[in-house]
Amino acid sequence: MGIRGHEAGWSNAKHADQWRNTLTTYAYPVFGELPVDAVDAGLVMQVLEPIWATKTETATRLRGRIESVLDWAKVRGYRHGENPSRWKGHLDHLLPARGKVQKVEHHAALPYDQIGTFMAALRTHYLISARGLEFLVLTAARTGEVTLETG
């Protein structure tokens, strides 16, 4: 299926587990026993539609994973034609955009006049996580950059 071949490129074992778990939970019950050449847009929609509005992040990642698996199968000669899980020019006509169904709630920012007090309190903690948070605040780095997670 290609997952094993990609594991070496992932930053940690959690990614492989997430791939397997989402595919096992959602895709395999619908088309896991079928040859990859039999997977069509109708089957992909059977997998995605029930969770698109309620588990949008999972559904989005799952769609991308199905697309990757089917692309791998096409390159290996196991299937032909268009990828039924492609978003642009295909599923984007069948499903509402992610931003339309998933409301993003950002965390509130700390008021500027409280940052000095916060940083002073943070510096009283001697944990590596406190140093990481301090670095994050001072540099505006992304959390993944601070924790060295790349994926």
Structure description:
- There is one protein chain.
- The chain is mostly helical and 151 residues long.
- It has two domains: 3-101, DNA polymerase, domain 1 (Orthogonal Bundle), CATH 1.10.150.130; 112-147, no CATH class.
- The chain is built from eight helices and no strands.
- The protein has helices at residues 3-7, 13-31, 41-52, 56-75, 98-101, 115-122, 128-139, 143-147.
- Helix 2 packs across helix 3 (41-52), helix 2 (13-31) crosses helix 4 and helix 3 (41-52) packs antiparallel against helix 4 (56-75).
- The radius of gyration is 21 Å and the shape is elongated.
- It starts with a helix and ends with a helix.
- The model has no long low-confidence stretch (mean pLDDT 87).
Helices and strands in order, then pairings?
Elements: H1 3-7, H2 13-31, H3 41-52, H4 56-75, H5 98-101, H6 115-122, H7 128-139, H8 143-147
Helix pairs in contact: 2-3, 2-4, 3-4
Shape: elongated
Biggest beta-sheet profile: none
Q: Ends: how far apart?
A: 20 Å
Mean pLDDT: 87
- Rounded to an integer in angstroms, the radius of gyration calculated over CA atoms is 21 Å
Look at the structure and give the CATH class of the largest domain. Answer: Mainly Alpha
User: How many domains?
Assistant: 2
Structural class: mainly alpha
- The CATH topology label of the largest domain is DNA polymerase, domain 1
* Overall helicity: 55-70%
Estimate the strand proportion. under 5%
Order of SSEs, N→C?
HHHHHHHH
CATH architecture of the largest domain: Orthogonal Bundle
Which residue ranges are poorly predicted, with pLDDT under 50 across at least 5 consecutive positions? Answer: none
- How many helices in DSSP terms? 8
Could you name the CATH homologous superfamily of the largest domain? Tyrosine recombinase, N-terminal domain
Write down how many β-strands occur, each being a DSSP E stretch of 2 or more residues. 0
